[in-house]
Amino acid sequence: MTPAAALPAHSARPAAARxxxxxxxxxxxxxxxxxxxxxxxxxxxxxxxxxxHSVFARACNVACGELxxxxxTRALGDGPTTVLLAGNPGDLRGRFAxxxxxxxxxGRMRSARTELDxxxxxxxxxxxxxxxxxxxxxxxxxxxxxxxxVARRAPQPNVLDREARDIxxxxxxxxxxxxxxAARAQADRLIGWGEGLTPAGDxxxxxxxxxLDALARGDAFRLAFRDALATxxxxxxxxxTPIAAHALRxxxxxxxxxxxxxxxxxxxxxxxxxxxxxxxxxxxxxxGATSGADTACGLVAALHAWSRAPSFAEAA
Amino acid sequence: xxxxxxxxxxxxNLYKDSVSLMQLTAQLREREGxxxxxxxxxxxxxxxxxxxxxxxxDVSPSPSDLLVVVRGEPQACDDAIAxxxxxxxxxxxxxGGGEASAFELPLTSIALGLExxxxxxxxxxxxxxxxxxxxxxxxxxxxxxxxxxxxNVSIAEERAIKTAARSRGLLVMGPDCGTAIxxxxxxxxxxxxxRGDIGLVAAxxxxxxxVTCRIHNLGGGISQALxxxxxxxKEEIGGITMLQGLAALAADPQTRVxxxxxxxxxxxIARKIEDAAAAAGKPVVIHFLGGMPEGTHAGVVGAKxxxxxxxxxxxxxxxxxxxxxxxxxxxxAVAAVEARTAKMAPAQTSVRxxxxxxxxxxxxxxxxxxxxxxxxxxxxxxxxxxxDGKRGGHVFLDLGDDDYTRGRPHPMIDPSERxxxxxxxxxxxxxxxxxxxxxLGYGAHADPAAPLAEALVDAxxxxxxxxxxxxxxxxxxxxxxDPQGKAKQVQQLERAGAVIVGSNIxxxxxxxxxxEQLAARRGAR
Lengths: 316, 525
Known about the structure:
The structure holds 2 protein chains of 2 kinds. Chain A has helices at 3-6, 25-29, 135-153, 165-176, 180-190, 200-215, 220-234, 242-252, 258-268, 273-285, 291-305, 312-315, and strands at 32-40, 48-55, 59-64, 67-72, 82-85, 101-105, 108-110, 114-117, 122-124. By secondary structure, chain A is of the alpha/beta class. An 8-stranded mixed barrel of chain A has the order 1-5-4-3-2-6-7-8. In chain A, helix 6 (200-215) packs across helix 9, helix 9 runs antiparallel to helix 10 and helix 10 crosses helix 11 (291-305). Chain B has 17 helices and 20 strands. In chain B, the strands form 5 sheets. Chain B has a 7-stranded parallel sheet, sandwiched between helices. Chain B has a 5-stranded parallel sheet with strand order 10-9-11-12-13, with helices on both faces. In chain B, strand 5, helix 6 (155-168) and strand 6 (172-173) form a beta-alpha-beta unit. Chain B is globular and about 90 Å long. Chain B starts with a strand and ends with a helix. The interface between A and B is large, with 46 and 38 residues.
């Protein structure tokens, strides 16, 4: 599946088309003003309107059509549907309220209390990925990564380390032999499984789809498998929380956060991989309570499945 | 267990991170009468898991709902659900505010902390020493004052950090700064003292606690109590923090009297401090342990002890004349100790000081040395000999020193090692008296006197069985406002047979008096 198949067509328009100056009453009435530092490449061009879905200290999710955009502080990091604010905007719970309307037009985003200036924003999009490293090097990097990941998960295990462990392994095994039916069945069991805001099973699948994407290049069988699984996942997202569902739909469409992208590049592509991979893994692990670790688990499982390295489960 | 039931509660559109929910689940499962519990988002996969765990429910929540399910005794289930509701809807974990959710990244840096608390202007750094300097520099770059609880920072790094801070108009308390009270907020080990008009800067943690507590107990109050770290007045650092602190207190309208406390500084630094104190425009009390200010400056008063520093500061704040002296020992305490001395065996010749506060150990040595009584210590004051591990003579041990805290908590937090040493004194034929401190306040053990009292009773019992009598002399550094309650702590120790006096210097002086009596007795024989 391509991004165009899963997301609104207009999201592919260049960011320059979204940026313009604005004047008017609403702008003058806004009590808090902030500058947007970067916009994810799948944030739709203005004009659009959305509703605040949920607000956290450092992130505000805005439902906008099929997308769940995230307005966040730098700590959140770039993502395909993320609007990152410059500087220190303070606690976003004081800036936005659940259910309120947000309008984006003429280079600004406005809510009842807040106005965001998009004029100086850069557009974030995933970096062009370099050539894949040799299988030998990939295996060596994966081995190192697996050891680090196992050590980091140990103090805070969740369902992926217990009840869902065999399911996750079965999904990875199905990927290894390109068994679409088995992969769908295992994915069905994982979607929505886990305690939190983004259940661990969903995070695992996001990482898995990203990992499969990285190694599918140039291989028609793998691409077909990956698209078949992604299509199935995208069609099953009503079975999980709205925030996790959005991440799954994005992953199915080949889009994920900069943290995931950097880890993939560090592991799979040419460069100073060992050093970069460790740093990129640390960065991903810092996401959420366990979301980063669960995503990394899925990513490593996929890379193992399509490389000749021993599996994550064996390393564990 | 009686008949069981299953209760559930649905929290619509409530988002929590997985760790919070796992912790809540564990808490519910531990409750009396609860057989099983689970807190999850109500996705079909999780509902299937609940069914497998015999936690099936008869409601139909949506995946965006949070579900709490409990199985067990009916009343226990109701109580657990109520507890879960209270926990989930507490302010800290309110809807949309799960503290560690995917959008509430863990605070893994000072910069992230500043995002959450943009009004913060001080960073407290307590990381291993190898990383502390870098963190301090990051905090300074963000415009924050710094308190470094961390130790094992090199003196070169300390100088670099403090120089950088000074150039930015920021203050660095530490490294190895364990105590401060800033704008009424206690940081590290600190006591509950009233706010007032006496400001302090100290290069000694327990010294700062002793002076602030005594000021409080005398009816005075504290405007600010700043720590500098123990090396600030060394030549290499130049007293950067003490001079900055002094200047800040001089400019602080809430501060009427300033008190400075330190072990003896390098002479050149002492002169700088005294000159700055004389120029402060406010009365300044200086206590350099083991020394007095060298020069004579108007407005600057030297104090001989921590107790005297507090006494002088309170008098000056009240506009009263400063009266040196009050060295006389409390007659009742002397009588109690002498009664024990009379029953001591001839071999009992030595005083053992077992301190949790380094400055108290230091001050006790000075009290002995001032009377010509030789002593040894693992942290020797000038004139004392290094403790060689043998048991002869008067010995003062700083049990908060690295030698005793490697791999274990500080004895103010976990006094078990000190209590074991107290017990062991019962078997020591030479030991005549045990001198000790008990430090109260935030961060300290919740009830340090209770286990210490048991150890003191044991030590006396063991000694008595061998025909010996032990004198037990202590002081409690704290206030009645402290979580442990000073009066309650004193009472427990007195019940255990200890003589508790009002300050560390009094305890040391009383022990020195006993040592002199024992020496005189030996001479008479």
